[in-house]
Amino acid sequence: MTMAQRKKTKKIVLTIIMLILALIYIYPVFLMVINSVKPFGEVIMDVIALPSKIEWSNYTYVMDKMKYGKLFLNNVIITVIGIVGIIIFSSMSAYIISRKKNKYTRFAQFMITTPMLIPFQTIMITLLKVMNVVNLSGSKVGLGIQYWGFGIPMAAFIYGNFMSTIPKELDESAFIDGAGTFRTYRSIIFPLLKSVTFTVIVIDVMWIWNDFLLPLLMVNSSNETKTLVLSAYTFVGQFNTQWHYAMAAMVLAVLPSIIIFIFLQKYIVEGVVAGAVKG
Amino acid sequence: MKRKKKEYLECAAFTVPSLFLVMLVFYIPFVMSLYYSLTEWNGISKSPKFIGLENFKKLFSGSSDFLQSLIFTGKYTIVFMILVNILALAIAVALVQKIPAANVMRSMFFIPYIMSMTIVGFIWKFIFSQGFAALFEKTHLGFLNLSWLGDSHLAFYAVAFVGIWQALGFYIVLYIAGLQAVPTDVLEAAEVDGATSWKKFFKVTLPLLGPSITTCVFMSLTNAVKVFDIILALTKGGPGGSTYSVTLDIYREAFQNNNYGLGSAKALVFFVIILVITQLVLKAMHSREVDL
Predict the structure, then answer these.
(1) Residues of A (19-58) whose Cβ lies below 8 Å from B
(2) pLDDT digits over B143-165, tens only?
(3) In chain B, whose CA is at the least distance from the CA of A146?
């Protein structure tokens, strides 16, 4: 065998091994999906077998029982409110902190980014009390606003790192043309931050959409405010012997993320990498 | 003078929303938990009772669940960090070999990461209880017939396994990005000098991967110590309390046992431990990095 041939065989073997590995890796997801469309009897009989017929009624039953449309909307509302606030406030503060160097901005920078070191679980007990006092618990908008606070430290940090690569001459010339600080931020700086904004959106959507503990503490008491994951959690708890319904509920909970991922995977992977490297 | 004042006002206007929000969700609760950790309070009675350092004494007396949960979390973190980094790096190295469909495979490994951890816990609960039994009937592989969630010793490995399964794709993606940034001319030079693939990897690629390794080790550490959702869905801390992580223990103490004071004390100790460990790891990692 020549060197080139040996290299080629090696590559083929590697490809086959990796492919088998990847297939085994997502086999549990596959099992969840096939069992979600089986009649109950078939789930009990044989978990691995493919369904003899597709039982869509599992889904209609679960969607009706969970009030899926409402939950989906709740998730969208909470996520959108959270993201918009995080982006506006963190980019604003990162802008001024990087442009005006004085005692005050140094203090602000320290205060805004330090909480990255505080794990959520160390403050959750008293957080609930504070949120009850300021009336932000028990509502979708309130939860969205809380995400502003939790998302700002990391977002401001990422924006701050990027701000230092934007030449100061840009805002100075805008300033000479008569634009005020806010105007400069809005029409010159913010558009230039597009790639970072994108990174922040990817990371924070994934986080807020799938978040569990904060919604559990804040909005779990009423069906009006529950999120998708919370409701799936309760549902699976109640239907833990009726696996066909539980599986359908689980598929419904993760389906939006998977669909979005399939269409935007290139950007999502880029965003996740950029966020981790900069963060 | 007037200009200076205007500048300060502007700085304040741009940062006050962020400062206010961060105060509201981090600093105020944090300071309050300092106080509550010194009290006995059930969350219902009007005023907490001040008891000094009693809560902290209780934490470190032998009978507390806290020490057990600390040990569990420590073990989990070590296993998670080591396996996640080794496996992710190995898979990343395989996937950057210009093999066909590498991107599709990368996505297959990444899918669990975009799913909610709670759902991931449930999927595996189903697999461990129903799926393994069915696979055992077909294959008769011994490990499929074990009670992975029912035995306190095995449950640890089940939890760690599921945690790794969920997160691995994230680290694979980070390592792939790191590997792609290793300059090819350096690798080619090594090849010309007659280095074997193994030598090339350990002597050239790995040292140049320093920043990626630092990022991944650090992130796997901070994510592992906070493990919560997966355990809640998979074992709820059982069997016999053997899989309580620190975060789950804090949650139970405060919101199930209604001991807000004791829960706050646990949270504070947890905070200090994490702060010390992350700083130490960060320092150790940075001092080892190699520049090109």
Answers:
(1) 19, 21-23, 25-26, 28-29, 31-32, 35, 43, 46-48
(2) 888 888 888 899 999 999 999 99
(3) B25
